[in-house]
Amino acid sequence: MVKASGVILAGGRSARMGRDKLPLEVGGVPLIHRVHEILAAECSEVMIVGHEREGLPPLEARFIEDLRPGREGPLAGIEAGLAASVNTCIFVAAGDMPFLKAEMVGYMLDLVGDGVARAAVPRHRGTHPLCAAYDRRVLPELTAALDGGVRAARRFVELFEGVRYLEAEELEGFGDPETLLMNVNSPEDLERAVAIHEGR
């Protein structure tokens, strides 16, 4: 475990799912519990941004709110996590990633902690800034981007220097990138995640 903060972005009710997806289970374990377990294995603190504690399974985590009124999206959630962190290294993960790997999280945190990069971001069929390690010192730039109207996390990552991208070949050292970076956004995604877990 490193001196890092794990930040889970928990957006609540999903329109495509038709309900709150984070308590949904894969292999008998709620999605958010799976992500929490991975981050807790690699980070000295875990925070959950943007979700009420009610309705979630018991978790040893600090619940924090967005700094901006209204729902400004995941980039504002990253801002809140960076601002609340007690550590310089941060790993941000969406709360609906059933197959995130602790080894990958630790590897990406090391890239940032060792000064190799200001952010370590997977890039497979697009960039994945909601499964990435950040140096907390990018916070002023992130806040400035939000103040300037940027809302897409992918767009923010494109705006600053020092990003270390993990391409497919590097990601394959931890597993199938499609599975590692999978989000459960719809009933079909949930079915696929259950099938992967069961080896079908």
Structural write-up:
With 200 residues, the chain is α/β, with parallel strands linked by helices. Helix content is 35%, strand content 22%. It is built from eight helices and eleven strands. The strands form three sheets. The protein has a seven-stranded mixed sheet, sandwiched between helices. Strands 2-3 form a two-stranded antiparallel ribbon. Strand 2 (13-14) and strand 3 form a beta hairpin. It is globular, with a radius of gyration of 16 Å. The mean pLDDT is 91.
Give a concise summary.
It contains eight helices and eleven strands. With 200 residues, the protein is an alpha/beta fold. A seven-stranded mixed β-sheet has the order 7-6-1-8-10-9-11, sandwiched between helices. Strands 2-3 form a two-stranded antiparallel ribbon. Strands 4-5 form a two-stranded antiparallel sheet.
Strand order of the largest sheet: 7-6-1-8-10-9-11
Structural class: alpha/beta
Main sheet overview = 7 strands, mixed
The number of distinct β-strands equals: 11
Q: Whole-number average pLDDT?
A: 91
The radius of gyration is 16 Å
* Helix coverage percent: 25-40%
Tell me the distance between the termini: 33 Å
> What's the helix count?
8
Low-confidence stretches: none
User: β content, as a range?
Assistant: 15-25%
Order of helices and strands: EEEEEHEEHEHEEHHEHHH
* Anisotropy-based shape: globular
Key words describing this protein structure:
single chain; 200 residues; alpha/beta; 35% helix; globular
